[in-house]
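Usage example:
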Amino acid sequence: MATMHDVARRAGVSVSTVSYVLTGTRPISAATRDRVLEAMAELGYQPNAMARGLASRRSNIVGLLLPLTGRALGATETAFVTGATEAARQAGYHLMLCPVGPGDTDELQVLATQGLLDGFLVMEVGLTDQRVDLLRTLDSPFVLIGRTADTDGLACVDIDFEQTVEDAVAHLVGLGHQAIAYVNHSSASLAGGYGPAKRTELAFEAALERHGITGVMVPTEDTASGGRAAIRQAREQCPELTGVLVMNENAALGILADLRESGLEVPYDVSVVSMVTSEVVADLASPPLTAMTSPGTALGAAATRVLLDRLTGDAGDPTYTELVPCVLDVRGTSGPARPRTRPTKAAPGRR
Amino acid sequence: MATMHDVARRAGVSVSTVSYVLTGTRPISAATRDRVLEAMAELGYQPNAMARGLASRRSNIVGLLLPLTGRALGATETAFVTGATEAARQAGYHLMLCPVGPGDTDELQVLATQGLLDGFLVMEVGLTDQRVDLLRTLDSPFVLIGRTADTDGLACVDIDFEQTVEDAVAHLVGLGHQAIAYVNHSSASLAGGYGPAKRTELAFEAALERHGITGVMVPTEDTASGGRAAIRQAREQCPELTGVLVMNENAALGILADLRESGLEVPYDVSVVSMVTSEVVADLASPPLTAMTSPGTALGAAATRVLLDRLTGDAGDPTYTELVPCVLDVRGTSGPARPRTRPTKAAPGRR
DNA sequence: ATGAAAGCGCTAACAT
DNA sequence: ATGTTAGCGCTTTCAT
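Running the assembly step on the lines above writes:
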């Protein structure tokens, strides 16, 4: 590999001149620049990343922190990752995948102090997350994808759950639905204060009130069978329900299957809207799921932009939150509410 | 940040001694080693990755090459990535995500010559893949996840498609099925010589012959609606079929839906086995898919191990191929073949 | 507008 | 078993 020295010699200039045409940090006459560029081309010169990093103390690499052990990544998370990676690349950065969950402080300590990474993107953020505290005290630049309980002084990019729930409920109400179930994350998540679970719960209650309709919230596991259990429970608690909102796409498929097996037709008898859903999964269902499509790629890209902005100095507001709502994609599982026999008494619907 | 110098001074030794206790490249007396270690601990010393990389010409980072633009990663590919990442970390390596598809030679050229990466994992390998040629001429260490047409002198880790198809067919035959459809990738893939499509096609024919049964192969798009179209076509071409093998999980769900809507019950009327399928998607279906679970994580890990072995010098066979079959997970979509009225004439099954 | 030179923090000969 | 020292290839003052 040709080095900067080789280029300098060939162009008849000093190494520093070569360096400066590369970084653009100081004015160079057009003539010499051309000579240098030409020499580079002829030699097939490519700056050495390590040397550059050592001298400049910047690697142009950001780390993406996410728990990886065991658990498979969902489509939404995957979209995050690809979005972030693409955005980084377009800005001339690289992205390193770092299997570091909320509790893995030792791993993170090493990562953050070995000087390999310019900053961090933090995924799967818990309400209290040791990674956040650590990065803060080490003062490494970072931005959260998600939110902790207290976001003071933090840069966050997250899904706008409030808006998403409101939009979903509005969609159902607009179709005439007056009794809606919300199938949330598990009660364990809820008890653990998991942000999305908590936020959507509150938002759901607010939406019910705002629209003057009734509803129930049922927590459940994020699996197809969890969805089945949940919808049964919901229909028991609220027999007149005609609309259901589901937090999890896996659960959504379970719900669809269970309704079908109960002799209920979707969307004629019951409408189902799935939240934070990826397009692939939505299309897997029959009929395809009406869903609040999660802006995974956009979020990843946004987070990356925010991080890179901080790295480039123009720090801006330290407490900065960017919220992106999921967007409603009406597909086959939502439709007009069936006329109800009576506001008070439930429709048949065998179980 | 404390440097090696600080540690050396504090421990009363030379820098090289500190370096050697770190790398273990030469014997150090227990006494001095302890003093050095202690000094490190007291200072919270962490070696600087860039400096180390520059001096040693090894970054301990491997690049994972995969096309990323637009297309969402499937569950299987995602498992690859996480498997590779985990395996790398356990070996003290990092993994960089590099959005580099089969044609992106310019990007790769830069990546491979800037000296940031010790080696490459290449995903989504085409039958002819420019990345392979380039890496070869640059002689960067690399291993393929997948296979090119000519694997001579290459290290590959791939799914054992032949074995997988054979296992799947054997499962169906064991259940009494005598007429089987294989829903493959699209005809475009097939025409383009896409490895998995080609290999499974051949393997399917071989399996039919070996077991002395009949069958049809139908190419289709990797979507739910593609699956629907495919199963209709298959039943038309081969009305007596009772078993179907599907290459793609999305198509599998479409097939299930279409069969259901055609009044056919799975697995009583028709058994469905999905190949190269992830557990999440399998469980999304109702009933859950009997599937040949793709060994995504294992493959990623295996590929990483092979690459790291080459990096560590003990090169071994340059032409090395490791094939891992998918493993059969019997769930709810396969069962005994229904007794046939006649070997020649088809069963009713309205459409 | 350009050059000279001092590091960046480490590894790995080459010494002893 | 340990110390000395010359780089690794670049950035960035400090000169001119």
